[in-house]
Amino acid sequence: MVFLPSATSATSAADVGLKRSHVDYSRYLSAEARSRLPNPIKSIWKAAQVKPGTINMGNGDPHHTLYPISEVNFVVPSIDEHDPVQSWRSGTGEQNIISSYKDELCALSLRTAFAYGAGAGLKDVRDALADLNDRIHSPPNHTVSLSLGNADALTKCFRLLGDPGDSFLCEEFTFSAMTNAALPLGIEWVPIRMDNNGLVPSDLERILSSWDEAKQGKRPHVLYTIPCSQNPTGSTLSLERRQQIYQIAHDWDIIILEDDPYFFLQYDLGMSQSTIQQYGHTRAMAEVLPRSFLSMDYDGRVMRLDSFSKIVAPGMRLGWVTSNSYFADKLDMLTDSSSQHPHGMGQAFVAELLGSNGWGVDGFMKWILSLCNEYQRRRDLFMDVFRQKVATSGFASAEVPQSGMFVWIKSGPTTNTADLMDELFRKLLNNGLVMMPASTFAIADRTGTMGSHINDRVNFFRATFVGTDETIRNGLATFGRTLEEFFL
Amino acid sequence: MVFLPSATSATSAADVGLKRSHVDYSRYLSAEARSRLPNPIKSIWKAAQVKPGTINMGNGDPHHTLYPISEVNFVVPSIDEHDPVQSWRSGTGEQNIISSYKDELCALSLRTAFAYGAGAGLKDVRDALADLNDRIHSPPNHTVSLSLGNADALTKCFRLLGDPGDSFLCEEFTFSAMTNAALPLGIEWVPIRMDNNGLVPSDLERILSSWDEAKQGKRPHVLYTIPCSQNPTGSTLSLERRQQIYQIAHDWDIIILEDDPYFFLQYDLGMSQSTIQQYGHTRAMAEVLPRSFLSMDYDGRVMRLDSFSKIVAPGMRLGWVTSNSYFADKLDMLTDSSSQHPHGMGQAFVAELLGSNGWGVDGFMKWILSLCNEYQRRRDLFMDVFRQKVATSGFASAEVPQSGMFVWIKSGPTTNTADLMDELFRKLLNNGLVMMPASTFAIADRTGTMGSHINDRVNFFRATFVGTDETIRNGLATFGRTLEEFFL
């Protein structure tokens, strides 16, 4: 059961069920987060709401009669189709119109959506997402706050938890746009070794147990990880590794930033048709989706980041963060002091889509399952073409990803790797193909404890399989041809 | 003419026309902003775009055929009505539907709006706002970047320009939600005295010329000001004061953060009907709106913040920042490293509204003029009721605001002011009325040079006149009655 406190509520109630030894969450905070004050104007208005019927002459809020939008209609696929994604792509399926109104009944009135709102998002939207969270992760006693997508959420978490001079842990290849965002805050990254199955727990343990605060500064208290379709390697952590990692985080008192935008895009799921028929898509999905760190988080040390970017559209710029209520409160205060609150149009859309006039949570899960089938088809096409056009030459190989959007293609030499890969990247570009070179994602080890330098391990490309069939066929043909030109 | 560079362009071209002595904008930046790296993935993709027809297997972007939205319709007032706001409020006017499509022609395709986009916003939207800017401010050679509203824009400017230990200048009563947001960054606020007409230029000069870096630390290099309907005092700076302030900023090399959400809500405008008929609403408005700091900014020292919150709706969470292209570029890098880019739905709406199938820029100005008339009516009603129900007692007085949403009501004692005003605030609350006490907005002077303490000048309330007629009548009746109970 997820507990959704009002913005004012203290941590006490929400902490019931979380381990007592960890309720002092303030010690994880950055100096910036610790010194942040609540918005004085919101505080006053909170006091004022105590009495019903109070007249508000305090705020500069335009009256809803002056909003120049009375209705927003969204044309979406009907979720009653057997395979809604296929029907939608082929244009053969039914469409539905879901509507938000200013002056008529709907899931979330535009009067509310277009007014100033709460930093954590509007209650209806948070409740719908908490419901979805509950059914998928059954997280012990956590709070949902909306974000503007995972980049917004993650960079806010960095500001919440990181002081200049702090070291944070991450996978040795990771989404560098985000790790770079932490550098100007004075946060150093400590890379953890990976293998074909992702982050290696024993290496995490090695780094922490051999950490020398006298030489290396404060021991890391944050792990940033992408557990599903790890970006860029495409690997998905096994349950065993997740449990080991959570245990290590518990032992060394580490906050886990679980950045999971690809979580819902899983393949070869082996869904139970009878569970779907009996209990619906959400329960059937919950049975087969990987177990999140959030789902095992009895310490309240996980901040889980979910996003609509991959399952609706990136331009939505909406997602949600699930964490203990203390962190949620601090995150909301940062939002009050920055982006203020999530945009009303996106919240209106989500409220209607997940509401009773839209798809509902279960319909949304049906769409996602259908999306998984389509992406699985593309992944399979990619791997088939890869075998025919690329692997035959012996110059490249790849594991089959079980989730997400990426294939991590091993190719090229293991000596003078960085230079030769750079040359190969340019040759591909010259032949009209962009794949992301591993060097873009490599985190250099400044502790010097890792043995071989990461530059010797950058013999990989990140390729996506979510483009059109034509992109897959033509792109991989170019790739295979270029490898032969390059290596022969 | 506004110059809209691509995200990659260097500062050189855009700086032509700005004074040469000020082109080294890097020295204004915070250490954080200076050390920020460009997004490595975007850099690679930029390189890739050089060659037309390049196949992109680099990015994890969902294909547009999988966005589950094919069309968004917005029902808006027809701008052909004589007085569109009155027709809209009374429900007698025509409505228009403006639409964004994924697969049909429109101002901004949903394929673009729902994809990953640029931190500064999409070109169509930036161009439309640059056009509006041009026609209103004719700014010398500036760049437009979208924001998520002025809270987002302003707090990003704080991070861009402020280091721990820096002092920034602001009005002695100001929008404390924003000044508070700067405190955890280690920025100290230095208040400037105000009178009935707003910020007093001679006091700004006094503070700067008497600044002792040995005692007070680095001289302030940033002024945060709200020139129209200053929040909370409702005052609007005269042209003469603006010119004096700009000159002082020039002399002391100060960046002006021009936070102007109420700019378009001006009253007693004395619009020229013949200009409207001959040249349209935009030119007629441009003739009578106050001259912005931006319009006089030949140094490139103004970052102007505009918002849709007051002229469309707060929940839009969209606005725009206009600045020299160097700052624009740094701002975009911060956006890349935080909120990523503005939401697609809002951008789609703005593109259609300001496009040829919507109101267009001139239609938007017609709406704003109509809005001004309605707010002027409310202001006049407020002042009438105020005279009858409040001023007659002699316990309160107020100037007539010429813009925005607020009346700054002087009331109460000038000795033991803070305590008595707090008591009065509670009494009002008890009687069912919220007005914002001046203490909420007061910036204490830490330099000790200001003479009397601000706590002796907090004998004011900020009241809004933008509520319904009923709110105005009942609220002011309660206010008048409470004052009599309190003071008699």
Automatic annotation (TrEMBL), chains A, B:
GO terms for molecular function: pyridoxal phosphate binding; transaminase activity. GO terms for biological process: alpha-amino acid metabolic process. Its cofactor is pyridoxal 5'-phosphate. It comes from the Eukaryota. Residues 102-477 form the Aminotransferase class I/classII large domain. Belongs to the class-I pyridoxal-phosphate-dependent aminotransferase family. This is Pyridoxal phosphate-dependent transferase. It comes from Suillus fuscotomentosus.
